[in-house]
Amino acid sequence: MSEKLDQLATRYGIELEFRELNGTIRHATELGKRAALRAMGVATETDEDIEASLSVARAVHVGEMKALENGVTCFMPDWLDRTWGVSTQVYSLRSERNWGMGDFEDLARYSEIAAEHGADFVGVNPLSALFFARPEHFSPFSPSNRQFLNPLYIAVDRIDGADELEVDEELLAHARACETVDYRAVAALKKPALIHLFERFRARAERGDEPEAESFETFSAHFGQPLYLHALFETLSEFMVQQGHGAGWYGWPEEYRHPGSDSVRAFAEEQAERVAFHVWLQWHADRQLGEAQHRACAAGMRIGLYLDLAVGVSSDGSATWSERELTIPSARIGAPPDYFNAAGQDWGLAPLSPATLEAREFQPYRESLDAVLRFGGAVRIDHAMSLYRLFWIPEGLAARDGLYIRYPFQEMLRSLSEVSNDRRAIVIGEDLGVVPPGFRDVMEAMKIEGYRVFFFEKDDNEYFIPPAKYPREALACITIHDLPPLAGWWGGHDLEVRAGIGMITPEDMPAARAYRAHEQRRLLGVLSDNGLLPERLLAVMHAEEAAPAELPYDVAVGLYQLMASTPSRLFVVAVEDLTGMTEQMNLPGTTDEHRNWQHKLPVELERLPELPLFRAIIGAVSRERPRH
Q1: Euclidean distance between the first and final Cα of the chain, in Å?
Q2: Domain ranges in the chain?
Q3: Which of 17, 11, 8, 2 is nearest to 43 (CA)?
Q4: What's the longest Cα–Cα distance across the chain?
Q5: What value does the mean pLDDT of the chain take?
Q6: What is the mean pLDDT of residues 275-283?
Q7: Burial grade of 171 (CB within 10 A; 0-12, 13-18, 19 or more)
Q8: How far apart are CA 465 and CA 566, in angstroms?
Q9: CA distance 314 to 251
Q10: Which residue among 66, 410, 539, 562 has the highest number of C-beta atoms inside a 10 angstrom radius?
Q11: Axis-axis angle for helices 262-270, 213-242 (nearest 10)
């Protein structure tokens, strides 16, 4: 019966085998195939079930590994050539005025600073809605709903009436002074302030003297039912947390798990004003992010905000509660085992249903894209291979037992192209990890820029590939949020962190340190080959002396100068490297063991342009890539 099961699996887009990162061919297990089919609603319990399912199954249209015909591509402006920008995790921005985490006003000011120094874009983490009732759920890559924004990024002091607020000054001082973001403290400060400002707004609107009342009503009407359901979910989520349940709907009483139930309708009527509050939050978040993009471009940027679309949504969030049929509830998105995670990765995200996407002509995917692209000039497609296939972990299975499910590739590409051109936004595809054969060729043909990360770009002999050999159709960078900043890498801080939580054993630590020293020498070799190595470090390069414990200033500047010289269309400077930061923003494979998505920059935004390292790196990059 295994042959029949394979036929059934193939008809539903399940890949029977795939090549791992190390080249090993991994075959989908019978258990995995049955579980994945079951997640799609296909009966496979008995041989008779498989026969019956096969008799009625139609082949899922998954498409070939090829670009669209007739020259259909994503948007690409004629002037885009050797452009550069900066990146940041918005929450990490410190300033004299924010309430303990970076906000949309900080983003606008950071964009203006970068624009003044010649940058054309600012890359940021996903800004999508999380769980307002659960501030400790702060991973930007596990959104509750990708169509809406995280209200914690609202700059409260930019709302009319904020100067009249009474704020807990002690808590505010604590939130600002913390070396990492205390999300609970930030929420405890912002939530009552926002409620007060909303009540003020409603009172003024009822009296007829609120000049923005019409704008609010227009926003609410424009986003309609999806916005209303998200606001209703947030209201219910707050109520459920108060009752001792979780913020996500999986743990709610059955009568509240469906938006159309009598209990939910009754709750919505009773809590209409609270629902309106959450709509009001989205209105302000929308306005402030839109203003940040406007200010970035007004300051001289040609792209502005380079935003990020997470690969999926939290399985128990607003999006899955609002439209249950849009996702597969009994499967999660992840990644197969690789060098960094031998057990594979379970990201806890709900995969989109290929069948529902096709039935709804891919409108849900276009809406998710448009929700991001309406705010910026470029978008990063997290895990771009999801256009072609996704690694599913069916319920009850471990990540290492997951398998790939194919998606209608041409239709996904067409949707991406349409939204990109409608919004005149550049598309960058994060193509790191296990990449299917031919996928990068399709990306290039579709004018989707790939990723080239210095730390990953090595030849078969483990030498760093010279940046001069990087492809033109790419975004080049030295590091990303899942890797240490340059100073942390050089000093081995990431190795110490991983050893401290058991990811590197005491027995393996000497080898890890030795290999890092080997990589340091090869980095210096790349600089030497390009005439950028300080003479005093020649002995280090030749292994005659140990490397300095801290990253040499001129090595950082030299590497950025070299990387900026790459022919790649786009190059991004990490703000962590501009400040000499050593902490890694996210350590894959960890949850509570490492302070993921919490580290703040070591200096305030207002002081950033004064830093010698900032001026030197930005100066070197802007000379290599002047704005024309």
Answers
A1: 65
A2: 1-77+323-376+386-431
A3: 8
A4: 79
A5: 96
A6: 99
A7: middle
A8: 11
A9: 14
A10: 562
A11: 120
The per-residue pLDDT for 1 is 57
Nearest to 533 by CA among 570, 501, 564, 558: 558
Mean pLDDT, residues 494-517 taken together = 97
Tell me if 569 sits within 8 A of 82, measured CB to CB. Answer: yes
Instruction: Tell me the three state secondary structure of residue 345.
Output: strand
In Å, what is the CA distance from 548 to each residue of 295, 521, 555, 560?
41, 12, 11, 19
SS3 98: coil
Please report the pLDDT score of residue 20 as a whole number: 83
Phi, psi of 95 (to 5 degrees): -155, 165
Residue type, 141: F
Q: How far apart are CA 90 and CA 130, in angstroms?
A: 15
User: At 471, is the secondary structure helix, strand, or coil?
Assistant: coil
> CB neighbours (10 Å) of residue 614?
22
Could you give the CA distance from residue 133 to residue 135 in angstroms, rounded to a whole number? 6
Element containing residue 497 per DSSP (H, E): helix 493-500
- Distance between CA atoms of residues 553 and 578, nearest Å: 11
Query: Are the C-beta atoms of 473 and 444 separated by less than 8 Å?
Result: yes
What proportions of the chain, in percent to the nearest 5, are helix, strand and coil?
A: 45, 15, 40
pLDDT of residue 339: 72
Percentage of residues of the chain with pLDDT beyond 70: 100
Count of residues in the chain: 628
- The answer on pLDDT for 340 being more than 80 is no
Q: What is the pLDDT of residue 435?
A: 93
Contact 121, 377 (CB under 8 A): yes
For residue 58, pLDDT over 80 is answered with: no
Assessment of whether the complete model's pTM goes beyond 0.90: yes
pLDDT of residue 627: 92
Q: How many Cα atoms are found within 13 Å in the side-chain-facing hemisphere of 97?
A: 15
247 vs 134: CA distance, rounded Å: 6
329 vs 495, residue with greater confidence: 495
Q: Assess whether pLDDT exceeds 80 at residue 61.
A: no
Task: Give the Cα-Cα-Cα angle 534, 539, 542 (nearest 5 degrees).
Answer: 110
**Beta strands in 244-402, from DSSP E residues, in sequence order:** 304-309, 313-314, 331-335, 345-350, 378-381, 389-394
Stretch 581-600: mean pLDDT, rounded?
Answer: 94
State the residue for tokens 């276009």.
366
* Identity at 147, one-letter amino acid code: Q
Most confident region among 19-33, 43-57, 249-263 by mean pLDDT: 249-263
SS3 314: strand
Q: Three-state secondary structure along 145-163? A: EEEEECHHHCCHHHCCCHH
The kind and range of the H/E element at 476 are: strand 474-477
Structure tokens at 443: 């990306």
